[in-house]
Amino acid sequence: xxxxxxxxxxxxxxxxxxxxxxxxxxxxxxxxxxxxxxxxxxxxxxxxxxxxxxxxxxxxxxxxxxxxxxxxxxxxxxxxxxxxxxxxxxxxxxxxxxxxxxxxxxxxxxxxxxxxxxxxxxxxxxxxxxxxxxxxxxxxxxxxxxxxxxxxxxxxxxxxxxxxxxxxxxxxxxxxxxxxxxxxxxxxxxxxxxxxxxxxxxxxxxxxxxxxxxxxxxxxxxxxxxxxxxxxxxxxxxxxxxxxxxxxxxxxxxxxxxxxxxxxxxxxxxxxxxxxxxxxx
Length: 281
Known about the structure:
Elements lengths: L1 E7 L3 H17 L9 E4 L2 H10 L4 H9 L11 H12 L4 H14 L5 H10 L12 E7 L5 E4 L7 H8 L9 E3 L2 E5 L14 E7 L12 H10 L3 E5 L3 H7 L9 H15 L12
Parallel strand pairs: 1-2, 1-7, 2-3, 7-8
Antiparallel strand pairs: 3-4, 3-6, 5-6
Helix pairs in contact: 1-3, 1-10, 4-5, 6-7, 9-10
């Protein structure tokens, strides 16, 4: 097996805020996230994973959430929510479910792709090039339903890759990359822990561990890799975290509380993270 992998899942603006709290709490407790040999990011995890890989301290990300900076107004409507659920839940077959979701995303009346790039670009302050640290970003082909993984060796720019990973079906249009249309990397699985297969130690942060539809949860994926011999540490919101986050993952007002809950949870659990992640200096 390889070395260490850090996996950051999706969860919208509120889940992303909780994630920054977790990352800052772990770092404050002596966990060196930069020990990771690769960072794998999905949706919100693609944003903060890119920033982490580019060298932004977790504490700074966390403090910006506490200050209410970097708000994202998705403006999700009830019809959009119903359309999403209808597409994702109408089939028990994972492949059919994600293809239905892709068709819904491609046909939904949304704004232009430029809005996705503008919003995501603002969440990557000063970052446009792929960082030197290995970074992998997920997206789902809206036509075929297949998971795609972008990195510095593939065609898209970092902004294109992250925008594609964040293109929430029905809410935002699929993002065009090299002539193909891509939607949110969490459309099949919210965290994509399986992509860390081959690494001995995996630290996964999953704001929304359960997928919508017949897709594997983060807990199931973690169990599969554990059975294969990997040491997987999965952090998902506890009861206090879920209460702070609420049910609306787009609620700007809930971001500071979600971030604090993530920091508190990480601080309490840091001692259970394997020593290989600790900065003993």
